Structure formats: structure tokens, C-alpha cells
Automatic annotation (TrEMBL):
Keywords assigned by UniProt, alphabetized: Fatty acid biosynthesis, Fatty acid metabolism, Lipid biosynthesis, Lipid metabolism, NADP, Oxidoreductase, Peroxisome, Phosphoprotein
Metabolic or biological pathway: Lipid metabolism
Complex and partners: Interacts with PEX5, probably required to target it into peroxisomes.
A Pfam family annotated for this UniProt entry: adh_short
Protein name in UniProt: Peroxisomal trans-2-enoyl-CoA reductase
Length: 164
């Protein structure tokens, strides 16, 4: 999705998927989405934060507006969704949160803004997991990779190829 596009942050309740469309970086919209979901389903079992926005650009050409838009969408939006769901339901009832990040472990040339924001989401995930564990909330991050980055070894197990 490009910047400015509506984002989907699915909130899932038992057996029902509710994918509202919103600009994730607006706290009021996120809070309203969570309240609406609770009004309809009376619970939130888990949250998947998979919204994002980015564009390819050499780092020296990223404007302040472009940088802020990517960080607001990828990092701030994720934080807002986690915070809203935790405070409204999971703090008292537990649940699971999955944050989608990017393969930024060895740098992300041409997408430094996205790499920085997704690395921050990885740290946010670890921090919230420790802070909220005592309330029964499990938080993990998932990093999708393309099939071109995987191969099958002789035992049939997948391994990631080195990007030397």
C-alpha cells in the first residue's frame, strides 16, 4: 500500500474477522475502532498489526514529510493499535498480538525509513511482551520473507539463504 492509503488492522474475535479501514496513525480513529469492535462482539481475542506504508528512495532523498509518514504509519500506528486493544480488553482478559515487521536485519538499502520503523516495531514488540506478560497478553513479531530467500535442504527443512 502506498502512503495515504487506508490501512487494514484486523481485529479478530472468536470466529469472526472484522477488518476496519482507517488511518492507523490517528489515535481517535484507532480508539473508535476498538470501541466499535467491543460493542459488536463483546471481546477481542487477538490483534494482527499488518498495516504499513513505504516507498523506495535513496536515504538522502527522503523528505521530512516522507520519513514522518512512514514512521507514523508503521511504528506509531502499531503502537496505537496495541495500546488501544490492551487498555480496552486485553489488560483484564489476556490475548495475543502479532506485529508484522520487515526483513531489515542486515540493513534495508533504498528503504531506510521502513527499515528504521520496522526495527523499532521489533523492539516495541519485545518491550510490550515483557511489560504485559503478567496480564496474559502474548506479543510476537513475524517477518515475512519471499520464497526467493528460502531453499530446502536435503532434510526438507527450510533455511534462509545468506545475503552475502
Amino acid at each position: 500500500m502506498g502512503l495515504g492509503s487506508p490501512l487494514v488492522f484486523p481485529i479478530v474475535t472468536t470466529g469472526v474477522l472484522t477488518p476496519p479501514r482507517l488511518a492507523s496513525c490517528l489515535w481517535e480513529q484507532v480508539e473508535s475502532m476498538v470501541k466499535t469492535t467491543l460493542n459488536i462482539y463483546n471481546r477481542i481475542d487477538f490483534l494482527i498489526n499488518n498495516g504499513g506504508g513505504q516507498f523506495p528512495s535513496p536515504s538522502e532523498e527522503i523528505s521530512a514529510k516522507g520519513w514522518n509518514a512512514v514512521v507514523e504509519t508503521n511504528l506509531t500506528g502499531t503502537f496505537y493499535c496495541c495500546k488501544a486493544v490492551y487498555n480496552a480488553w486485553m489488560k483484564e482478559h489476556g490475548g495475543a498480538i502479532v506485529n508484522i515487521i520487515a526483513d531489515m536485519w542486515k540493513g534495508f538499502p533504498g528503504m531506510a525509513h521502513t527499515g528504521a520503523a520496522r526495527a523499532a516495531v521489533d523492539n516495541l514488540t519485545k518491550s510490550l511482551a515483557i511489560e504485559w506478560a503478567h496480564t496474559g497478553v502474548r506479543i510476537n513479531s513475524v517477518c515475512p520473507v519471499s520464497m526467493g530467500d528460502l531453499c530446502v535442504d536435503t532434510t526438507g527443512c527450510y533455511r534462509t539463504l545468506s545475503r552475502g
